[in-house]
Design a protein that fits this description.
heterodimer, A: 426 residues, alpha/beta, 10-stranded mixed sheet, 9-stranded mixed sheet, 9 helices, 22% helix, 37% strand, globular, B: 506 residues, 6-stranded parallel β-barrel, 14 helices, 33% strand, disordered N terminus
Amino acid sequence: MALPDVKQSATEARLATLRMPEAGCTRDAREAALARLRAMGLPGRRDEYWKYTRPDTLISPEAPKAEVFHTDEPMVFDGFDRLKIVFVDGVFSPEDSDDLTLEGVSIDRLEDICCKDIHWAKQLYGVLEERGQTPVQRPLAALNTAFAQDGVAIHVTGKPSKPISLIYRHDSESSDAILHHVIRVESGAEVTILENGPAASRFNKCIEIDIADGGTLHHVRAQGRDHQRRAATHMFTRLGKDSVYKSFTLTVNGVLTRNEQVVELTGDDAVAHVAGACVGDGDFHHDDTVFITHDAVNCESRQVFKKVLRNGATGVFQGKILVKEGAQKTDGYQISQSLLLDDDSQFLAKPELEIYADDVACSHGSTSGAIDETALFYLRSRGVPAKEATNMLTLAFLAEAVEEIEDEALAEDIVSRLEGWLARHS
Amino acid sequence: MAALDQTQVKEGVDQETVDAVREVGTYKYGWDTDIEMEYAPKGVNPDIVKLISEKNEEPEWMTEWRLKAFERWTQMEEPKWAMVHYPEIDFQDQYYYARPKSMETKPKSLDEVDPKLLATYEKLGIPLKEQMILAGVEGAEDAPAEGRKVAVDAVFDSVSVGTTFQDELKKHGVIFCSISEAIREHPELVKKYLGSVVPVSDNFYATLNSAVFSDGSFVYVPPGVRCPMELSTYFRINAENTGQFERTLIIADKGSYVSYLEGCTAPQRDTAQLHAAVVEIIVEEDAEVKYSTVQNWFPGDENGKGGIYNFVTKRADCRGDRSKVMWTQVETGSAVTWKYPSCILRGDDSQGEFYSIAITNNYQQADTGTKMIHLGKNTKSRIVSKGISAGKAQNTYRGLVSMHPKAKNSRNYTQCDSLLIGDKCGAHTVPYIEVKNNSSRVEHEATTSKVDDDQLFYCRQRGMDEEEAVALVVNGFCKDVLQALPMEFAMEAQQLVAISLEGSVG
């Protein structure tokens, strides 16, 4: 079917500003992604999948300007021993990064891979993204595959002694960054991936994660306080038998953030948990879009999303559990909740189930409301000042999502960030 | 019913029981009535629209209204977003108007109605004739009727064939008649309200209905009147290749109350038939409307052949403060169901309720749910939806709960449960939740599971066969909704639940 004119011209206008880098072994994948993108067009306001989030500024030819954010406070994860990989405005910075050698893992820069004709990443680059295009189209991910400027390929073969930390730095007011990472976790291997930092004025990021049988990947991400940024991120994860994927995202502020998680459980007994906590103030728009496909027996998936919104902030949640025919004994759980701290904020949710197997237990819940007056009264009657009581209840509300982080030290660091935000904004 | 035919008759079970079980297992409304019909030519165009309007002896403004709708319809596209798949419908290969020949001149009373027609309704279990006699006998209306009285408007293909108890209702000021009669007799009411809840250009099927609707029911309950009996409409599609497009308009004026029941059946045919109805309900201050449906259109055979395509737009507008509407539906029939009875909660403190059981078996597909639009302060809504899917059927709940910024202190509770019987069917939930103020509370819960093995085992242990046990468990699963139905309907619905699932076990 031909694209509507408006869509086609918007797509071509954006493509005119992009240049495909030297591609080497990723060339075929990039060309195919470009063809995919041209066939579906960039998202428009009338697309069902973008019903609650306006994609205009994510697809405009030029990135809207965003002030560079400065703070003297230590960055999240600063106190942790980790292997740092730093990107400045979407470009790998060798001088800021650590030495990329670590036992149990091999890390290559995307640019280096692109010079080669043969590399393991060829089997993965653009592959999971393409799988993730059905049944719902994700044009921004196809754009990413075709035009990614930089990124890393992480091959986990053992159990590296420390987390691998991807740090994004923002230096230019008009930076428009496209990053693409691929991660392969081999059988029995285990790794923790951390992500943080303001990346660019506009950030399009895609990570493809392939976890082999018995592999484990923990992912903790903090999207920072660079309020004017616009970000569209995609994580495509495929899980083999007995593998584990646990991902948590903290988002504080940001004028527009769309985080998509596309998870496919292809091996029996696999476990996938995705969680998120976000706190937003004012012209904040945060969109969590999750799509989990159960295509194997006895798998477990869990989605826990909590949003605290104030002063006209908007929170969006689109979550789906798809259980394919034959994916018996599936345990699927999904909860999305919002706490609206005032009357101007809004929560828009579309929690979906699509189930083609009978021996399953799937449930979802979604609630929205104000702070519980009775609980507030209880705390105040025990001498806790109103502000403090509100903050305590807000933190308690977010706790269920934060608890999804297995590493206690990391969870504590995240909680301290939330406390900081609440202190600043109340 | 292959499963039952092969069942060995157990010792101690008499032949009567076996026959009875066999009978309930099939679609028992699958016969057709051999009546001479009058058709309009196939297809739809301005001339057909005019013809329908003419046949109903409508005034000019109504004809214009229809033609405008038709023109709009030609520019619209069929919606594709629902989780239902069916071969493309050729809208020109349908009859848009069919009526029994004997109805060419409107009968003055039910006595003049073709006896075959009345026999049809009797077969359907509607005691039209009996009630007619009751109503016809002088003084009989004042005498206590046996059981509960129900006034019936029966619609056969395109026309209403009779309405009972009209006189008694008139005494209370209640108008209950066919919509074509209302257009002629009460144009001021029709003009004021028709299309005010479901606008002409609302959606593809509603617009088509606006152009070609042939008949339907009209109810007006004056201020302060509690309608003395339940009102009921029975819809029957009889003729082949005929689409039925009925239009129902219910107006509950200030402080009134009415309970309305709707039932539908159709004969068993190989080809799919189209049904696109529109129901509009207007609820004024302090008024209450209860609308119950048992939809049992022919669902197609066990290979998915034939059946009714049911595309229905139902909407209630709670205009006045403290108004209340309650939708209850039991959807067991139709090959394809596309139906979202909705509530616009405009008045402060108004309430909307939606209770639904949707059962799909064999190749049936249902995409149904509700919209609760909260506009007024302190509005409340409650949604309880039970979807049961068996065989190769697909069952989707699709709904919207929207809290507008001005709908302070409003409340919604939604519970959607799906039950799967067999590993080839599907159950889906697609809720939309939009909350735009913080004093409102919205809760949504959904679960999907299969029939509990422990419960089945318990029933089997006590001597029930598997089908009986499943029917019992399913009835328990639906209890919340069945309880919301008026008494007579609840009994019928309970049986329907069991019948619809016949052959799905084992």
